[in-house]
Amino acid sequence: LHRIRHTNLTAYDHQDLPFDQLVELLNPTRSMARHPLFQVMLTVENNPAPSPGLVGMTASVRPIDIPVAKFDLTLSYTDRDPRTGQAATGSIEYATDLFDRESVETLATRLIRILEAVTAHPEQPIGDIDLLSAEERHQLLTTWNNTAAPVPDATLPDLFQAQAVRTPDNIAIIFQNTQLTYAELNTRANQLAHHLISTGTGPEDIIALALPRGIDMIT
């Protein structure tokens, strides 16, 4: 937190640098789809907004709803106004081509979680902060990872042999312009197995392979 504060305050030493000169020096890759220098902006309003002074009239500042996002993401924070007691507010403007409302709401929730953790323990590394809530962690590790399935009590060769019996004419392997059915692949595998047996190879013996990528590597 202290390092980020120092970096941001130091940047003010160059706040008068013309934008055109900055773009010329950096020479970024130009694209019509995004800003050349940055795509995410953070704005902080920590000065009370001036009240319009119109003689004989009461006026107030009202926000204008602009339906076009200038950047991919814009995070805006307005500090509490001590004159009116207006509470601090925050908002996120986003490009709907890149984000939907649910994604941005999740982003906002996690940002708040980071800010709360940093202010509570400013000495802890950013990498130690847990972005996920208990519900999100359960969803990732349990709900979405519930891929358990019954596994037959058989070896891989036995399972392949059974599949070859069930669907002998189905395509088992394709490489470039060559393809083999389960029956053809099973025949080639059995031929190789019998050849190895004839050379004295037995169970648990190590067989070295020196083959290019292709069907022969599988058989």
Task: Explain how this protein is built.
The structure is a single chain. The protein has helices at residues 2-11, 19-26, 101-120, 134-143, 156-166, 182-198, 215-218, and strands at 40-45, 73-78, 89-94, 171-175, 178-181. The protein is an alpha+beta fold and 219 residues long. The protein folds into 2 domains: 2-143, Chloramphenicol Acetyltransferase (2-Layer Sandwich), CATH 3.30.559; 156-218, Rossmann fold (3-Layer(aba) Sandwich), CATH 3.40.50.980. The strands form 2 sheets. It has a 3-stranded mixed beta sheet with strand order 1-2-3, with no helix packed on it. The longest helix is centred in the middle third of the chain and has 20 residues, at 101-120. The mean pLDDT is 86.
Brief overview:
This is Non-ribosomal peptide synthetase. This protein has 219 residues and is an alpha+beta fold.
Secondary-structure map with pairings?
Blueprint: H1 2-11, H2 19-26, E1 40-45, E2 73-78, E3 89-94, H3 101-120, H4 134-143, H5 156-166, E4 171-175, E5 178-181, H6 182-198, H7 215-218
Parallel strand pairs: 1-2
Antiparallel strand pairs: 2-3, 4-5
CATH architecture of the largest domain: 2-Layer Sandwich
- Topology-level CATH name of the largest domain: Chloramphenicol Acetyltransferase
User: From the alpha-carbon coordinates, what is the Rg to the nearest angstrom?
Assistant: 32 Å
Number of helices: 7
Sheet of most strands = 3 strands, mixed
CATH C-level name of the largest domain: Alpha Beta
Helical residues, percent: 25-40%
- According to CATH, the homologous superfamily of the largest domain is Nonribosomal peptide synthetase, condensation domain
- By secondary-structure content and strand pairing, the structural class works out as alpha+beta
> What shape does the CA trace take?
elongated
Number of strands: 5
First CA to last CA: what distance? 58 Å
Main β-sheet, spatial strand arrangement: 1-2-3
The low-pLDDT segments are: none
Count of discrete structural domains: 2
Strand content: 5-15%
What is the string of SSEs from the N terminus onward? HHEEEHHHEEHH
Overall pLDDT level: 86
Domain Condensation: 1-141
Protein name: Non-ribosomal peptide synthetase
Pfam family, one: Condensation
Organism: Nonomuraea zeae
